[in-house]
Design brief:
Helices cover 26% and strands 18% of the residues. By secondary structure, it is α+β, with helices and mostly antiparallel strands. It has a single domain (15-27, 35-123), classed as Chitinase A, domain 3 (Roll), CATH 3.10.50.40. A four-stranded antiparallel β-sheet has the order 2-1-4-3, with helices on both faces. A hairpin with a 2-residue loop joins strand 3 and strand 4 (119-125). Its EC number is 5.2.1.8.
Amino acid sequence: MSSSSNRHGGDGGEVRASHILVKHQGSRRKASWKDPEGQVIKNTTRDSAVSQLKAFRDDIVSGKAKFEDIASRFSDCSSAKRGGDLGPFGRGQMQKPFEEATYALKVGEISDIVDTDSGVHIIMRTG
C-alpha cells in the first residue's frame, strides 16, 4: 500500500492515524470482526453510533480511558487489534472525509465525529 519512496513528510505527504469506527444501519458493509452476522450493526442507528463515539471521545479527552484501549474493545474496524492504528497513508488512500479530517488534525489531536460510507469515526493523528 505505501512504499518508502512516497514518504515526503509535511506538505501533503503521508500521515499516520488511529481511529475508532462504529458501524450503523447506513454503513455500506453491515458486519465486523465483533459482529460477523451484523446483528448489532443492523439495529444501530447513526444517532446511536454517534452517541457511543461522543462518550468514548469524552472518556479519552478527560483521561478516563486510553484511545487504544477503547479502539481495541469497541471499534468495528479490524485495526482494533492494533489499538486502532491504520499505519501511514497518503492522499487518495482513504475515503475523502476521513482523509480530510486526518490531514486537518495536528499530531496528538482527536477529531470530532467523521462520517464515511463505512460508518462514524473518531480519528487521532499520530504522525
